[in-house]
Amino acid sequence: MKLHPVFQNLRWKLLALAIAVGLWAAFVSSPELITFVSAPLQYQNMPQDLEMTADAPERVYLEVRGLSARLRSFDPSRTAVVLNLVAVQHAGEYTFTVDGNHVDLPVGLRLERAVPGQVRLRFEHRVSAQVPVRVRLSGVPPEGYRVARQQVRPPTLTIVGAETRVKRVEYVETDPIDLARAGKETQFHVHTFLPDPQVRFVSPSAVDVVVSLERTR
Q1: 117-142 pLDDT, tens digit each
Q2: CATH number of 127-215: 3.40.50.150, 2.170.120.40, 3.40.50.300, 3.90.190.20?
Q3: Burial of 77 (0-12, 13-18, 19+ CB in 10 A)
């Protein structure tokens, strides 16, 4: 008599069922644990005409709770705190509360708290400006010579950033030019430096400086 397909290999099916039930029981009975994760702060829908000026934290510490079985397979390096800036339409200060809506955790894990629990960001209008290049000389010219003139090409560079920060930048300065290497007329290709890390160059930051020497006697 031919057995119904349901009853074929019944012994193996019952064994597989028992193993599955045992694994499920072990999983649901595992204790809940807590771990702390350092997650980077990321931003979504950054406004194109505004600049973030407040020194926001680069990372947020997350207290994550879940079953030990879930935590063992949890990869913290794939976790980030994502703040949606779609509501930022004008310059000013905006406060964001970090909760579970900002963190994508695997199923079975939940966010207990974040440190800091809130992030306050300040936005200003983005502006650009032309600033002069100041030549920085070092050392002394060869004996019997002095600097007659110096010429920078281009004489100004374009910078961009938050309005208040751009207004503070009066000039950019070249890397030091060693006068001991200068001849009667020598051209140096050097980079310039912006003192404010939140302001950046639009144009290339390198310039050509022509240094002309003349005899002192």
Answers
A1: 999 999 999 999 999 999 999 988 88
A2: 2.170.120.40
A3: exposed
